[in-house]
């Protein structure tokens, strides 16, 4: 008997391992021309695991104070064995994770995978994307370099536009009136404790829901299979789909390694609160579409403050986005077309505004 | 009253009568209110106008002189900008008379009219040399301008009867004199050279004086002019910085070093103890300007040193003498350090472009650059050993940073090799997985 079988028997005897893993063994994945979109969720999860692992390694050397943060990251990058690799992979993986999360979200939207009974899966997924952006925003400040400092200053200022509680949010985020060492410590806390805690919980619920409801089949394929049941195909999750997913993970790992080795994540210059903000400062790419929109909105629209209108607009859009499955559930003839149209518009808007934000001075 | 009122109220006519009387009374009150308002507004406006213009502007002098032409024209606006008018002084302060009456030009009231140029310095000094008087306006203002002026070439020539030379009003203006710190003042640092040039760059005006009139042209191309006008450094030298202002005179041969050393302290100290000091003195050469020129002081470069065509050393040293050999050696050393810095810079730039973290080495390289600057200052000791010592420190730092850059480039190559091996491994895994999937799905 192999060692693996021995361990399995040992677990089975004590915990009923075979019973526990039965649903997974029975789990299947539909096979059709659009099946490759199913890999995106797994890739995002893989990148999240990489984030957790590299993040823990960075924690061994990182020091969250205005006096030491920059120097500690510099030390990690230049002195710690493979520190450069860990930091670069952490930074690149963060960006790739948000990219794949966006792609996953739009694939779910266009393949109509959010429909009943998967509304909660969509909601938890959308919230996870917001959390990922929160990770990005809080993590960006941690090296305490010039760009991070001023991007955080601008980013937290935007929160101040929220009516009534705006100023309170700014002070809560910054730990005071301005971006200081207190902000860094606070962001560190969000980044390594608050956000991971909430994310782990939501991620657990999200994955549990995916297991509970299984993988959704796009309506077009579903109709085709209804017409011709013999055309319906599926594969076992273990090992067939999992092995294919592993191929995707290996490819993601190769891309990450290539990015880290060929284009190591830069460090920039240490933040100096007393120098003027560098010209043309921009946030990370995933905030760029919002940043560019706020830049384009006039200072006053009628009698309403432009920034306030922008923030309210994005808040409303975010809320509608999270509740999209319920919009489609409405007894409205055009609801389905509306949701797809909204998805196309959102994708086009995000892509075009991001490109515009990069090109604009 | 109440009875009449009641009676009136009891009749229709009475009602009409009451209404008419009431309307007339209202109109009268309204007209009175408007009249008072207009009067108050006019008074306030006149007070505001009075507050805006200095007392002197309201003088009868300005009333007439604002309508006159050429030199006699003094407008209210022009005089309102004058520092003296702003401090409450009137035309009578200089010209006498009584500007408050229509007999302003009454000689019995001390009216002087035109003031002779030769009398101007003494006239201004009446107040400006009086410490007690000036203290009430500006306690920190010096009161030795006249004493200094008398030591200047201008002052001496004026005393000798030459009225073409500059007196107070030529530099400071006359009826629109502004404070020196006012950027519109003719003696504000940015404007001094232009003010001096009005006479000193005018060949026709300077005819008969034993000096050239190319100083301004030379200064305009100098590093000092660039610092002042391009970089906006108001502490950069202008004419008065070296020549003095009220005591303006060319510095003598012996005192040139002292003039330059007010800013270039280290260079002057090194020169003082250099072998060039006695040699220059013996040859009657002025220190700094012998190599750097006086007004046309260009940005110094290494090409000024050595034995090349642009080197100033060869103006005195000839091939074969010890100075010629030393000049060549110093130049070689400077060029060698410059080249070493350039090499390190290039390696670090390549490393940085490859994404390598070399900021510490780049920071260290700035100290090598500082060392080169120091060597260029030490050059004024004209002692090769001292310069060699500075160069050596710079060379060691430059070499250290170059090695750091090359190490970073080796590390980059190592990473790329590691990436290659990893990618091959990943590729092998992918092929293996693909084959394994095929195998289990064939069963």
What can you see in these coordinates?
The complex is a heterodimer of chains A (361) and B (443). Chain A is mainly alpha-helical. Chain A has a domain at 35-217 and 237-286: Cytochrome Bc1 Complex, Chain C. In chain A, a hairpin with a 2-residue loop joins β3 (300-301) and β4. Chain A contains 16 helices and four strands. In chain A, α4 (39-59) packs across α12 (237-262), α5 crosses α6 and α6 (83-110) runs antiparallel to α7 (119-141). Chain A is globular, with a radius of gyration of 23 Å. The model of chain A has no long low-confidence stretch (mean pLDDT 93). By secondary structure, chain B is mainly alpha-helical. Helices cover 61% and strands 0% of the residues of chain B. Chain B has helices at 2-10, 12-52, 60-65, 76-80, 83-86, 92-95, 120-128, 131-135, 145-151, 153-159, 168-172, 189-200, 215-220, 223-229, 239-243, 256-261, 265-272, 276-283, 287-292, 322-353, 359-378, 384-442. Chain B is elongated.
């Amino acid at each position: 008997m192999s060692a693996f079988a021995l361990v399995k028997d040992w677990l089975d005897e004590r915990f009923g391992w075979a019973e526990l893993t039965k649903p997974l063994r029975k789990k299947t994945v539909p096979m059709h021309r659009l099946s490759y979109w199913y890999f995106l969720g797994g890739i995002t999860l893989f990148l999240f695991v990489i984030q957790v692992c590299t993040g823990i390694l960075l924690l061994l050397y990182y020091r969250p104070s205005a006096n030491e943060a920059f120097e500690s990251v510099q030390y990690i990058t230049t002195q710690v064995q493979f520190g450069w690799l860990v930091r670069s992979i952490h930074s690149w993986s963060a960006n790739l994770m948000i990219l794949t999360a966006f792609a996953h979200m739009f694939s779910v939207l266009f393949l109509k995978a959010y429909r009943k009974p998967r509304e909660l899966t969509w909601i938890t997924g959308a919230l996870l994307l917001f959390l990922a952006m929160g990770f990005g925003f809080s993590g960006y400040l941690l090296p305490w370099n010039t760009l991070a400092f001023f991007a955080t200053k601008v980013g937290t200022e935007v929160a101040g536009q929220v009516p009534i509680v705006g100023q309170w949010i700014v002070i809560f985020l910054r730990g005071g009136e301005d971006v200081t060492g207190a902000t860094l410590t606070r962001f560190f806390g969000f980044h390594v404790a608050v956000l991971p805690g909430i994310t782990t919980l939501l991620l657990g619920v999200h994955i549990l829901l995916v297991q509970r409801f299984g993988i959704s089949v796009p309506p077009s394929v579903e109709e085709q299979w209804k017409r011709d049941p013999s055309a319906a195909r599926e594969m076992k999750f273990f090992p067939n789909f999992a092995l294919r997913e592993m191929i995707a993970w290996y490819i993601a790992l190769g891309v990450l390694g290539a990015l880290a080795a060929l284009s190591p994540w830069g460090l920039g210059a240490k933040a100096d609160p007393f120098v003027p903000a560098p010209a043309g400062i921009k946030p990370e790419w995933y905030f760029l579409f919002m940043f560019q929109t706020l830049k384009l909105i006039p200072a006053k629209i009628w009698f309403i403050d432009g920034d306030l209108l922008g923030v309210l607009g994005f808040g409303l859009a975010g809320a509608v986005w999270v509740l999209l499955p319920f919009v489609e559930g409405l007894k409205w003839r055009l609801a389905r077309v509306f949701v797809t149209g909204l998805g196309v518009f959102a994708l086009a808007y995000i892509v075009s505004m991001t490109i515009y934000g990069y090109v604009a001075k | 009253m109440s009875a009449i009122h009641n009676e009136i109220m009891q009749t229709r006519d009475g009602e009409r009568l009451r209404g008419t009387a009431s309307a007339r009374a209202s109109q009268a009150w309204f007209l009175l209110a408007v009249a008072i308002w207009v009067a108050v507004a006019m008074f306030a406006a006149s007070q505001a106008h009075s507050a805006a213009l200095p007392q002197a502007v309201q003088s009868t002098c300005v009333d007439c002189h604002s309508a006159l032409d050429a030199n006699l024209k003094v407008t209210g606006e022009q005089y309102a900008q004058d520092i003296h008018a702003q401090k409450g002084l009137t035309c009578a302060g200089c010209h006498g008379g009584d500007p408050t009456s229509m007999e302003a030009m009454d000689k019995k009231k001390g009216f002087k009219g035109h003031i002779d140029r030769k009398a101007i310095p003494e006239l201004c000094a009446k107040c400006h040399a009086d410490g007690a008087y000036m203290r009430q306006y500006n306690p920190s203002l010096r009161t030795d301008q006249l004493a200094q002026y008398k030591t200047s070439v201008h002052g001496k020539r004026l005393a000798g009867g030459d009225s073409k030379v500059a007196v107070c009003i030529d530099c400071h203006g006359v009826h629109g004199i502004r404070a020196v710190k006012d950027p519109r003042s003719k003696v504000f640092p940015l404007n001094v050279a232009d003010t001096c040039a009005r006479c000193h760059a005018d060949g026709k005006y300077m005819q008969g004086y034993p000096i050239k009139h190319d100083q301004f042209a030379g200064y305009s191309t100098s590093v000092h002019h660039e610092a002042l006008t391009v970089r906006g450094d108001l502490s950069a030298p202008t004419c008065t910085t070296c020549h003095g202002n009220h005591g303006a005179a060319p510095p003598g041969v012996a005192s040139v070093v002292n003039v330059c050393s007010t800013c270039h302290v280290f260079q002057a100290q090194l020169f003082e103890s250099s072998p060039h000091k006695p040699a220059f003195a013996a040859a009657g050469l002025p220190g700094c300007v012998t190599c750097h020129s006086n007004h046309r002081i260009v940005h110094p470069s290494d090409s000024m040193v050595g034995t090349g065509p642009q080197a100033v050393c060869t103006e005195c040293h000839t091939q074969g003498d010890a100075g010629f050999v030393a000049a060549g050696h110093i130049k070689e050393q400077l060029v060698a350090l410059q080249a070493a810095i350039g090499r390190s810079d290039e390696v670090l730039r390549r490393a940085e472009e490859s994404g390598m973290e070399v900021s510490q080495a780049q920071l260290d390289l700035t100290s090598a650059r500082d060392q080169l600057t120091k060597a260029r200052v030490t050059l004024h000791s004209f002692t090769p050993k001292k310069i060699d010592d500075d160069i050596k420190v710079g060379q060691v730092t430059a070499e250290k940073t170059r090695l750091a850059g090359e190490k970073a480039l080796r590390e980059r190559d190592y990473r790329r090799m590691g990436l290659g091996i990893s990618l091959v491994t990943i590729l092998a895994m992918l092929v293996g997985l693909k084959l394994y999937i095929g195998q289990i799905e064939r069963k």
